[in-house]
Amino acid sequence: MDIFKPIQIFADIVTYNWFNITNQYWGDAINFFIYDTIKIGLLLIVINYFMAITRYYLPVEKIRSILASRKWYGFDYFLAALLGVVTPFCSCSSIPLFIGFVGSGIPLGVTFAFLIASPLVNEASLFIFPSIFGLKMTLVYNSIGIAVAMLAGLVIQKLKMDKNVNPDFLKFKTQKEAIQENGGEIVPLKKRLIIWWNDGMHISKSIFPYVLIGVGLGALIHGFVPRDFVEMYLSIKDWWAVPMAVILGMPLYANSVSIIPVVEAMTGKGIPIGTSLAFMTATVTLSIPGLLILKKAMNWKLLLAFVIVTSIGIMIIGYFFNFFTF
């Protein structure tokens, strides 16, 4: 069941009935913009509200202690990557959760493991991949995807770039602070609801202008960049085709469900599977619209580190599948 189908229906009505747009390119672009703006906007509000509740009650010191004393090194990165697998979000939609995790005191590298895994390995790669590419390739892709997310998170953590996160996103009211402001008494539910709403809306309003810019750019590319343009450059079977696939995939914006049929068509036209997968993973993980939104939460240094580390991981996936046949 597609919970966002009513939004798509509304976008179709506005685009083709109210605006009466008949041009295919403008129709696709405007329909895309309306649908994604509403979807991501609603997700921002809902996710940020629940993350405000989580931050309010979360025992940050205890979590830090658990993570610091872990017996199995890297297990927290594995758990974060698995959480990314089971959250059906695109790169733009998973950013509010990323911000919430960082604000709750979760190590930066662990949160990046989630941020990378969420669009990279998700319900589409789990349930649609097998019918198109087979079970064996699906298992290998998802395993490598989780490993890439974990390794990228570990590298980000080793770079010690925690100070490069925008501190405005780390400001939230904890339960302890709220009780102190309430004279040491338990805060009434009505007042807590207001606190959570204010904290959630603070982040949502800060990010939303970047959502509009990012989705607007993605809509223009979605509507006006022909698929043949991409296929022309990726059909060449040479070593630089994989990095080129990453570069061509970044300006685009699509979720994994919508991009998988494109990958199937690309492989059907003779483009190597690894090159096609590199294009897909760059589109869903490193889209420029998503990066524009992410920039609000961090400075350019951390954003560049994220892009470089993730791009290397994506190219590893591409070269691996080009080299091995499944």
Topology (SSEs and partners):
Layout: H1 5-18, H2 24-57, H3 60-68, H4 75-86, H5 91-103, H6 108-120, H7 123-127, H8 129-133, H9 135-158, H10 175-181, H11 189-224, H12 227-234, H13 241-249, H14 256-268, H15 273-285, H16 288-295, H17 300-323
Q: Can you describe what's shown?
A:
- The protein is mainly alpha-helical and 326 residues long.
- It contains 17 helices and no strands.
- The protein is globular.
- Helix 4 (75-86) crosses helix 9 and helix 15 packs antiparallel against helix 17 (300-323).
- The model has no long low-confidence stretch (mean pLDDT 78).
- The two termini are 31 Å apart.
- 76% of the residues lie in helices and 0% in strands.
- It has one domain (5-323).
**Could you list the spans in which at least 5 consecutive residues all have pLDDT below 50?**
none
Tell me the number of strands: 0
Rg result: 21 Å
- Gross geometry: globular
- Termini gap: 31 Å
Helix residue percentage: over 70%
The tally of structural domains comes to 1
Strand content: under 5%
Q: Look at the structure and give the mean pLDDT.
A: 78
